[in-house]
Specification:
Blueprint lengths: L1 E9 L4 E9 L6 E2 L5 E3 L3 E9 L2 E6 L2 E6 L9 E2 L2 E8 L6 E10 L5
Parallel strand pairs: 1-3
Antiparallel strand pairs: 1-2, 2-10, 4-9, 5-8, 5-10, 6-7, 6-9
């Protein structure tokens, strides 16, 4: 069984999503857990940290982004909506975590 948990930290200017994924023996199907975050304005990914191979982002029940590293997501823009984030395991890992920082998208540069 795989257990995933997430924490959300929200301030006026920054939203941080944290997720963790653990393998639990004796179960083959993953159990995904994430506390969703609702953003009301366009936000941009400004920082990604984690002990994972990459991650995916869902908007509602639809997977909208898949990243195989922690560099490519920087600058990705998310429109208003409710989001979930889940980390990918590194090879042979039994634990993964992800932390994504979002800030308001400043269109003027």
């Amino acid at each position: 069984m795989i257990i995933i948990s997430s924490t959300i930290i929200i301030s006026a200017q920054t939203i941080v999503l944290k997720g963790e994924r653990n393998t639990v023996l004796k179960k083959t199907n993953p159990e995904l857990k994430c506390t969703p975050v609702k953003i009301t304005t366009t936000m941009k990914i400004t920082k990604v940290d984690g002990n994972c191979k990459g991650f995916w982002i869902q908007k509602g029940s639809e997977t909208i982004h898949k990243f195989n590293n922690l560099i490519d997501p920087i600058g990705t823009v998310l429109s208003a909506g409710t989001y979930y984030v889940y980390p990918y395991f590194k090879d042979d890992a039994k634990k993964a975590d992800i932390k994504i920082t979002l800030k308001p998208n400043n269109k003027s540069g």
